Structures are given as structure tokens and as C-alpha cells.
Amino acid sequence: MRLISSIVVPVLIIMTCGCETLTYLTTPKPVANSCYRGAISTIKPKLIDLTLPPLGIETTEELGNSIIYRSKIYDFSAIVLSQPVSANGANAGVIFTLTAPSGKFKVEGKDNRGIFYRSPTRITMYVKNVEDDKESILELRGGIVVPEADSGKTQIYWYDTDMPGIALSIDGNFTYISTKHSDIIPDQLIKELVYNGRSNETVKFMYREFKDNLARPAFTQEVTYDLQIGDEIGFKGARFKILEANNTQIKYIAIKNFN
Fold it and tell me: How far apart are CA 159 and CA 154, in angstroms?
């Protein structure tokens, strides 16, 4: 971790033009300590081919639920803050407080400070000029830094508007929960087979394809199977064996997912 002697912190300046008061934000000559800066390298998400349910395991689903599902997702590491957290800093007569909201923070990148997790909403910077007692509140892109070494400290980071891509950070002291986050890949086709009930020896299903979370009517199809012919069902490469089916649920074993 590299300690630096400069940091850019916005200061409120009031200018009067005629009878209208205009508020501007500018940056003082930066002199500070206990603040860190640097460009972070992006951490790319893991691409996962998500197929449900697991093969070879007895599964039970309610009427109207998907019984065979396939999509591609991006898998990210993430952290969760159960409550907002804050950290304080100072810069040449200016004091400021950074506050990150509660919620799930998705991984963004890393450098020698640790792993950077982006806030789900903007973080807040409260700035006060000690000399003239002027105050301002800024909404900034940023998040939480989690150290990779046990001896490191958690930090709050934000981006300097004058230096795009440069992340500034200050030490904090707060706890978090490690978790995962998944995003469906845009414009890719999602396939699912939905259980639609049973009539005598006939079981009914609805096959659907989705794109951008919207059903495509041309790719919605009702399918039926006669259990007197057999209890192993096949459709578009998927295979599953029906153990029990009624008008409330289906019990089955998935053998193969969609092609």
C-alpha cells in the first residue's frame, strides 16, 4: 500500500451574480495524509453455463415452476454491508466524511490496496471548510476496499472527477459478509420447460425461450406426453424421468439438459 501526500477534495465556493446566488465546486491544492490513490485493474466475471436442476438427483417442483432450465450468467464475488459505514478525512483546512450505503457490493477491480467492490448506489461525501464554515454534500462513484492481507484495513474509495480511472481511498473500520452475485448475460437465449399439470395419463408442459427477460411468443410451445407410452421424456435435447406427477407437483430425475 502506497501512502501519498496529495488528494483532491471538492470545496464549496459561493459566487453572487446580480441577485442570483450560484454554487460551484472546485478543488483546493491537495495536501493530505492517510489517503491513498491509484488506478485499479479490472476483475472480469466468471462465465457460467447454468443448468438446473442437478442431473441424477430426485427433484420436486410445484405446478407452474420450471423443471429444466438453461442460461449463461456472469458470476462475481461480492460483499454485503448490513448497515451504512463511514470514514473521515482531512485536507488543508477541509474535513470530510465518506459514507457508503448498506447493500450488496459487486467486485470491480484490484490493486495493492486490495479488492475493490462497487457500491450499488453512489456514496456520499460530506465536505466542510473549517475556515469559512461552508458545507457541501457530493454523490460520487465508489465503494469498499477489502484487503487481501490479514494485516490490511478496510477502506472506502471514490473516483476523482479530475483524474478519470484514479481511485482515491481512506482507511475505515467496519465488517462485511462475503457472498456471490450473478447477472444474466444480455441478449442470450434462456430456455426452460415448465410443468403444466396432468390429465389422466397425459402430462403437460410449456416450453419457453426468453431474451432480455422477455418471453418471445414465437418460442413458446405447449407440449404433452402420454405416460402409458413411457415415463422418460425428451425435448430439445433434454431428458428426464417422471417418478410422480399430479395437478399440484411433479417428482422427477433430470438425465440431461437442453442442447
Answer: 17
**CB neighbour class for 249 (10 Å; exposed up to 12, middle 13-18, buried from 19):** middle
CB atoms near residue 36 (< 10 Å) = 20
Q: Tell me, what's the pLDDT at 215?
A: 53
Q: Is 190 exposed, middle or buried (0-12, 13-18, 19+ CB in 10 A)?
A: buried
More confident residue, 198 or 8: 198
d(CA 68, CA 54): 10
Cell, residue 150: 490479514
Q: How confident is the model at residue 225 (pLDDT cuts 50, 70, 90)?
A: very high
Pick from 2, 57, 64, 4: nearest CA to 30: 4
Rounded Cα distance, 8 and 53, in Å: 51
What DSSP designation does 248 have? S
